[in-house]
Inverse folding.
C-alpha cells in the first residue's frame, strides 16, 4: 500500500482525535447584547455565547461533582446576563452559598428563616386550585398519596379552614388544630412536621411578596437556616408554585430572546425529582413565557426525565461516577472521547450540549476550554449626609480617572472602600480628595456628579469641618498609607 496514503489516513484519524467536531461558528457567536458569553471552545477557540433566541428553549442544566464549578458557572452566567438584559433571577439557595455573591452583585438576599410564609395564601388563586396545589405539595413531600384516608381528611380540613368566617386568614396551624379536634391524629401528624415546635415559619402572615421578588433583579432566597429539610422543601415547592402561577398570569411575551426571569435551583434534588413538582411545569411551559430554569446538581439521575428532555443547554463539568456518566450519555449523547475527557476534567472544564432551534443543525456536545469566570460586579456605596449613593466600582474608577487621579491614588481610595466593606462616608471621600490636592469646588462638582444633592453636600462638608477641628480619624489613617 502506498505509504503516503497510509500517512494521510493515519493523519486523518489523529485529526479526529485531537479535534472532535464543534458547532458551526454562526451558531455559537452572538453579539454581546444578544448572548451571554461563557468561554471558548477547546479546539477552534470559538467564543461561545448563550443566546436563547438561537436555542430550542431557555433552560439550562449544570452537572458535576462537588467542587467542579457548578455554582461558579451559575454565578458567572447570571452576572453577565444581568449586565446585558437587566434580567431578574430568583435563586432558591438550599445551602446558603449564594448570599455573599448576590450581595456583592448588588442583589437581595432573603433569609427565609427570618421571614414568614403563609402557604395557605391564595396568591390570586381560587381556593380549590390552591388546595389542590397544597395537596400535591404534600404528595411529593410526605407521599400523601399512599395515605388516601388522611389525604381526604387533610383536603377536607383545608376546605373547612378556608371557608371559616372571620377576618383572620387561615394558617397551616389551623389545619393541624382542626384535624386534632376531629380526632384525625395520623393526618395531623403528617403535616405537623411543617409546623414544628419553636418555629412558626409557616404560621404567621406572609412577609414576602413573591411577585415583587420576581421583578427585583437578582434575588437569592436562602433556605438553609430553616430548621428541617422538610421545611426547606415545602418552602421551595411553595415558592415555585407561586412563580408558576405568576408566570401563567403574566401571559406570553412575544419579544423573543429576552428572558424575563431566571429561576435557579441549586441542589434542590428533592423538588426536581418528582413528576408533580412545579419544576416540571416551569420547564414545560417556561419557553412560552420567557421564563428560564437553571438547575444545578451533582447527580444527573436526580433530574426527572421530563426536565432533561426540555433542557436546551447542558453544561457537563467533572463527572467521575460511571453510572452518572452513562445516564447522562444516554440523555444527551456524546462520543467515547468526550466521555473520557469529562472524567478527567479539572475545575471549570466543561462539555456543553446545546440544542439549536435551527432545523438542520445537529445536536452536539462539544468541549470548552473552561468556563470563563467573571469577577462579581462590585458596588461601592458612598454615604453622604442622610443619603446613600451606590455606584458600580468600574464606573466609579472611570470617573476618578477622569477627575485626574493616578494609579496609586486610585488604589489608595479603593483600599479605603474595601476597609469599609464597600462603604465609605462622604466626608472621608472628601478628606481623601483634599489630601490629593483637589480644590473644594472641584470636589463639590464631583460629588454632584455622583448624585449627591445640595442639602447633603452641606451636611458632608460640615462633617469635614468638624472632623478637622477634632483631628478626625481620616487624617490619621491617611498619614501612613500616603507616605
Ligand atoms: N471556571 C472556573 N474558573 C476558576 N475557578 C473556578 C471555576 N469554576 C469553579 N472555580 C472555583 O472552584 C471552587 C469550587 O467551585 P463551586 O463552588 O462552583 O463548585 P460546585 O460544583 O458548586 O460545588 P458544590 O457541589 O460543592 O456546591 C470555587 O472556589 C470556585 O471559585
Ligand atoms: Mg455549589
Amino acid at each position: 500500500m502506498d505509504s503516503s496514503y497510509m500517512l494521510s489516513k493515519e493523519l486523518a484519524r489523529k485529526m479526529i482525535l485531537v479535534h472532535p467536531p464543534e458547532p458551526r461558528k454562526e451558531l455559537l457567536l452572538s453579539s454581546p447584547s444578544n448572548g451571554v458569553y461563557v468561554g471558548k471552545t477547546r479546539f477552534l477557540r470559538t467564543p461561545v455565547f448563550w443566546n436563547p433566541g438561537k436555542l430550542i428553549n431557555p433552560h439550562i442544566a449544570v452537572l458535576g461533582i462537588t467542587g467542579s464549578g457548578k455554582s461558579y458557572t451559575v454565578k458567572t452566567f447570571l452576572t453577565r446576563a444581568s449586565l446585558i438584559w437587566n434580567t431578574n433571577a430568583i435563586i432558591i439557595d438550599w445551602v446558603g452559598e449564594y448570599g455573599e455573591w448576590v450581595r456583592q452583585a448588588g442583589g437581595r438576599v432573603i433569609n427565609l428563616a427570618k421571614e414568614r410564609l403563609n402557604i395557605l395564601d391564595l396568591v390570586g388563586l381560587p381556593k380549590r386550585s390552591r388546595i389542590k396545589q397544597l395537596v400535591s405539595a404534600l404528595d411529593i413531600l410526605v407521599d400523601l398519596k399512599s395515605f388516601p384516608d388522611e389525604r381526604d381528611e387533610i383536603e377536607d380540613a383545608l376546605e373547612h379552614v378556608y371557608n371559616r368566617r372571620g377576618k383572620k386568614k387561615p394558617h397551616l396551624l389551623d389545619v393541624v388544630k382542626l384535624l386534632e379536634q376531629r380526632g384525625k391524629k395520623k393526618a395531623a401528624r403528617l403535616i405537623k412536621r411543617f409546623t414544628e415546635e419553636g418555629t412558626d415559619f409557616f404560621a404567621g402572615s406572609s412577609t414576602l411578596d413573591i411577585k415583587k421578588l420576581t421583578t427585583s433583579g437578582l434575588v437569592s432566597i436562602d433556605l438553609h437556616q430553616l430548621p428541617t429539610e422538610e421545611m426547606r422543601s415545602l418552602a421551595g415547592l411553595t415558592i415555585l408554585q407561586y412563580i408558576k402561577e405568576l408566570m401563567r398570569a403574566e401571559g406570553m411575551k412575544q419579544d423573543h430572546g429576552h428572558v424575563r426571569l431566571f429561576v435557579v435551583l441549586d441542589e434542590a434534588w428533592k423538588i426536581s425529582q418528582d413528576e408533580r413538582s412545579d419544576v416540571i411545569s416551569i420547564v414545560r411551559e417556561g419557553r412560552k413565557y420567557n421564563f428560564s430554569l437553571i438547575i444545578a446538581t451533582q447527580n444527573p439521575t436526580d433530574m426527572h426525565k421530563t426536565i432533561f428532555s426540555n433542557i436546551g443547554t447542558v453544561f457537563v463539568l467533572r463527572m467521575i461516577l460511571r453510572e452518572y456518566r452513562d445516564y447522562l450519555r444516554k440523555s444527551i449523547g456524546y462520543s467515547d472521547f468526550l466521555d473520557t475527557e469529562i472524567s478527567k476534567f479539572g475545575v471549570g472544564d466543561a462539555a456543553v450540549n446545546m440544542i439549536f432551534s435551527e432545523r438542520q443543525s445537529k445536536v452536539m456536545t462539544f468541549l470548552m476550554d473552561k468556563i470563563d469566570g467573571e469577577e462579581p460586579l462590585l458596588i461601592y456605596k458612598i454615604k453622604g449626609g442622610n443619603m446613600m449613593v451606590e455606584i458600580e466600582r468600574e464606573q466609579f474608577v472611570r470617573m476618578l480617572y477622569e477627575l485626574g487621579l493616578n494609579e496609586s491614588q486610585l488604589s489608595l481610595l479603593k483600599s479605603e472602600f474595601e476597609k469599609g466593606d464597600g462603604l465609605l462616608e462622604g466626608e472621608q471621600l472628601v478628606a481623601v480628595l483634599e489630601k490629593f490636592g483637589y480644590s473644594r469646588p472641584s470636589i463639590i462638582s464631583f460629588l454632584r456628579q455622583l448624585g449627591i444633592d445640595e442639602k447633603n453636600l452641606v451636611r458632608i462638608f460640615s462633617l469635614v469641618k468638624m472632623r478637622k477641628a477634632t483631628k478626625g480619624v481620616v487624617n490619621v489613617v491617611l498619614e501612613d498609607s500616603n507616605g
Remarks:
- The chain has 21 helices and 14 strands.
